[in-house]
Amino acid sequence: MSIKPRLSRGLRDLLPDTMLARQRLIDTVREVYETYGFAPLDTPAIEYLDVLSGSAGAEAQQSIFRVSNPEEEELGLRFDLTVPLSRVVSQYPEVTLPFRRYQVSQVWRADKPHPGRFRQFTQFDLDAVGAPCGTADTEILAAICDSLSAIGVGPYEVRFSSREILNLLLRHASISADRAEDVFRVLDKLEKIGIEKVKLELTNGYRDESGDMIPGLGLGDDQVSAIERFLSIQGTDRGDVLQQLRSLFADIETSAEQLDVIESISSDLDTLGYGSDRVALDVSIARGLAYYTGPVFEAVLLDAPQFGSVFGGGRYDNLVARFGGPPIPATGASLGVDRILAAMEHLGKVRPAKTPAEVLVTVMDGGLRQECLQLAFELRRAGIRTEIHVGSGRLGKQLKRADRLGIPYAILMGTNEAEQGVVTLKQMEVAHQAGGAITQHEDWKAARFGQREVSRADIVQTLASLLGRD
RNA sequence: GCCGACGUAGCUCAGCCGGUUAGAGCGCCUGAUUGUGGAUCAGGAGGUCGAUGGUUCGAAUCCAUCCGUCGGUACCA
Question: Which terminus of chain A is more solvent-facing, meaning fewer CB atoms within 10 Å of its CB: N or C?
């Protein structure tokens, strides 16, 4: 009885083509984060259940993967990187605050999988722990922009708001604080379901297309119209939005002071060249997370909005205090690596290659095997990613392999070349462009698409130059 | 979690009011072509028809349950 090769739902293998794109993405973002002077951290996948679950409600605990060990301790897989970070900061007094760290790691959630959403996925987080509201939040927003620019996924929009703005709304609309989470959750759906359904969900609920009853929150008409007035605050300019907020909340004593904090971040961003065209102050941003206390952030790709937010984050000034000790203010953001890769693939921004190799050195003549091997190592020592043919098989099979794996160049060195002290350099893609009309295979072969002879002595330099390595 | 649809080859699917050995296209492998990838041609591998139980002389086909996938919805730290 053989075992069927398979994976549990929501899990997947990352094959070489996926891994190559992923590693390039991660390298790019890491470079940005390190430019900001953030330091790397890694923590175990497994944490004590009480460490994980303190910040989460009963419902949230259901999506934690439980883990067992020989000691039968209560353990689980981490569901984000923020909670482990809070633990680390609390556990190691020697960590110097502010602790500015990045971490790229897998996390696990036992939710129902959706397209682009898995039970094991990767987050790339950037956080500053021990940093009060202000400069640190500006930096996080700027780093989000720089990361998205560096990745090259096309136009994007970073949106931010603040839990404090939303709290002002609650006061303005006379909504009690214990309804805050329910209200925020509905507001967060604005972009997805539209203002009319948001209003229904705030009041009496509605029946959706599938016949499901969506329960309402039972707010009054005055409260809903106050919320609607708030949500109608939209502007292409952060200054405009702030001005509208100031006038809407003018009746609330502390509002000016609270809005000054947002204005300061906005002004920082202006000074640094992050204009309203890519960092918008969007009052409908709420973020589902209960632990956010100040500015909240997200980012969407304008060419692929259906993928949702690729960055999410915010300020969480109370999370670290869970582990005892004084409150430590913190802010950060998380890049959804799997989600942004899915979007890039959708946008055709992922180069389809199944190997990092740039050159395949073919081996046609067993007598020249060692010469071919020497050439391959010369290329490698020059920093050129080189595969040498290691199996049996005719030249055709070797070239087919280069084609299949997406290796752009092949080197042919048989007796003909060896006698003349040259090698044949073949650029694989040429035949795809030039050979389409040829119907006779003999003609196809005779065309020698993309080939030229290069002196054996010059081939390393020639390839280095072609690949931009010189 | 709830509602609905659907599970047949690696992929997309046909077959299904029960009736011999279950098909196609694409992909894969081999060869024509041991110094040339594509196209073309010839050949080949690959399926306990999601699983289990039931009805029947006989089940991919009908029934039940379970599992899984997809869509919607809820949740999303």
Answer: N
pLDDT grade for A435, boundaries at 50, 70 and 90: confident
Domain extents in chain A: 16-346, 359-466
Domain spanning A359-466: which CATH class is it, in words?
alpha beta
Structure tokens given for A199: 């209003």
Query: ipTM of this predicted complex?
Result: 0.81
Nucleotide nearest to A292 in CA–C1' terms: B77
CB of residue A9 closer than 7 A to nucleic acid strand B?
Answer: yes
The pLDDT of residue A425 is 97
Distance A429 CA to B73 C1' (A): 47
Q: Which residues contact A113 (CB under 8 A, 6 or more apart)?
A: A9, A10, A119
Query: Nearest nt to A61, CA vs C1'?
Result: B77
pLDDT of res. A209: 58
Residue with tokens 């330091």: A39
pLDDT at A99: 97
Given a contact cutoff of 8 angstroms between Cβ atoms, the answer to whether A66 and A48 are in contact is no
A70-84, A220-234, A281-295: the lowest-pLDDT one: A281-295
Nearest Cα to Cα of residue A431 among A385, A399, A405: A399
Work out if A217's Cβ lies within 7 angstroms of strand B. Answer: no
Nearest CA among A7, A32, A34, A79 for reference residue A291: A79
Answer yes or no: same fold for A16-346 and A359-466: no
Nucleotides of B strand lying within 7 Å of any protein CB atom = 1-3, 28, 30, 32-40, 68-77
State residue A28 phi and psi, 5-degree precision. Answer: -65, -45
Q: What is the rounded CA–CA span in Å between residue A104 and residue A121?
A: 10
- Is the pLDDT reported for residue A463 higher than 50? yes
C-beta atoms surrounding A453 within 10 Å = 15
Record: fold of A16-346:
BirA Bifunctional Protein; domain 2 (3.30.930)
Peptide bond into A115 cis (omega under 30): no
